[in-house]
UniProtKB/TrEMBL annotation:
Keywords attached to this entry: Isomerase, Rotamase, Signal
Domain of life (superkingdom): Bacteria
Pfam family, one: FKBP_C
Protein name: Peptidyl-prolyl cis-trans isomerase
Gene Ontology terms for molecular function: peptidyl-prolyl cis-trans isomerase activity
Position of the signal peptide: 1-24
InterPro entries: PPIase_dom_sf, PPIase_FKBP_dom
Reactions the enzyme catalyzes: [protein]-peptidylproline (omega=180) = [protein]-peptidylproline (omega=0)
Enzyme Commission number(s) of this protein: 5.2.1.8
The family this protein is said to belong to: Belongs to the FKBP-type PPIase family.
TM spans (from-to): none
Amino acid sequence: MRRTTTARAIAAATTALVLSLSLAACSGDGGSDDSPSADASASVSAAQAADQAALAKVKVEGEPGEEPKVTLPSTPFNVTTFVAHLVQDGDGAAIEDGQNLTVHMVMVSGTDGSTMGSTYPDSPETVTAGATSIAELDKELEGAHVGARVLVALSSGENNTQVYAMEVVDAVTIPDRAEGEAVAPVEGLPTVTLGEDGAPSITPSTAAAPTTLVAQPLIKGSGPAVESGQTVTVKYTGWLWDGTEFDSSWSKDTTFPFQVGAGQVIPGWDTGVTGQTVGSQVLLVVPPDQGYGDQDNGTIPANSTLVFVVDILDAR
């Protein structure tokens, strides 16, 4: 099983659930307690309580660090909302918001209790504590410790529930910014200026955009070189070649983990960070064939040359 299978399934289901709840909340006038939106909220709360009670009956058995046996109370097992449940706290260090959590998962079918996928023994996922994009999971992990086991259940349609047994096997505090030896700027590339907190801004270059990938270190970190297959954690800001900003993890105060070489990011990122050392800040200039090609992507026009400043904070 590819490492990204479980994470992508959770992300897709989360998006669908959030959208459905948002539509329900917007359906009424919001003016009184008996409005449609209030009724919908009460109904969702009642459903969540029932689903939470059902999830608490799922058994997770096995030694820490080993793939557990997950037993559903009955099959088919179904929930109607997105719920999480802390099965057992760990005896390791306390989990802190913003840490990189190394998490193993087993995905179980609610239809018949069969195992649909697993990251054990050597393909764990990486998530950010307190910012997993799954509020229910963040709540269950709040105050927990390394070694904690958590169940997450979600429905992607009628009688189609998946149950995830998750185990936090490590927690690492990530630096706030790249730190190392400054590298002299290269003529013809955008000029990068750093704020007091390390957030980058650029002055666009007046030269023609490069037609091949540029990966120019701005700060040389002292950590090990990034290898394909590792999960790296970065902070970044992205601009069009003309200096128009289109995305930044700095403005969201978040980090971004991804597996190098797994196709989770544009090719220019996979290639550009490979071989760079942890702690480095790298200027990536990504031509269209290494970015989004001839396709629009949100606010990014087709055939755009992209500029990124990427702080490589961790790799493991």
